[in-house]
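Quick one, probably user error.
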């Protein structure tokens, strides 16, 4: 049985593993190896995850994990980007466990935190243009496309901004 819980230090390895494997699965064919390795180093290192588990606040609510038989099979986190506006910053599922409802449970946990603890009434997410794993998921959860954002650091990786009322 899958349990959704607030992550703690014992989940660092599992969060890192799920995020790295999920990132490769999602972007391995559309992004350069150098780009993927840089993102993984910047965001999914053990040091960064450990810091994010101990230094959370309204802007970063920490990680939630989906755990089955002691193993992390999914991870998600978000925070507030304005007074009543939350954002889902990260969500990855073990690539072999997609379409089991794990992502929905994690999104629900982040959304509940943003609504109940921080007073969010709206929620945003960025999804890579062409990400046909993420876009249908978010749209099925009520997110609506708002606009494209072209990152200065790499204009070929266009982000689609979506939002929904919560």
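Nope, works fine. Designed sequence:
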């Amino acid at each position: 049985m899958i349990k959704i819980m607030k992550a703690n230090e014992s989940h660092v390895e599992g969060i890192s593993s799920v995020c790295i494997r999920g990132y490769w699965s999602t972007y391995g064919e559309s992004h350069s190896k150098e780009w993927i390795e840089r993102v993984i180093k910047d965001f999914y290192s053990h040091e960064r995850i450990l810091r994010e588990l101990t230094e959370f606040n309204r802007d970063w609510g920490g990680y939630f994990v989906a755990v089955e038989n002691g193993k992390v099979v999914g991870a998600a986190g978000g925070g507030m980007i304005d007074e009543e506006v939350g954002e889902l910053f990260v969500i990855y599922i073990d690539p072999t466990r997609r379409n089991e409802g794990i992502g929905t449970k994690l999104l629900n946990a982040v959304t509940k935190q943003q609504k109940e603890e921080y007073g969010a009434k709206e929620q945003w997410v960025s999804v890579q243009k062409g990400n046909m794993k993420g876009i249908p998921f978010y749209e099925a959860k009520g997110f609506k496309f708002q606009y494209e954002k072209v990152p200065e650091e790499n204009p070929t990786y266009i982000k689609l901004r979506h939002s929904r009322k919560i």
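The domain at 2-165 is CATH 3.40.630.30 (Aminopeptidase).
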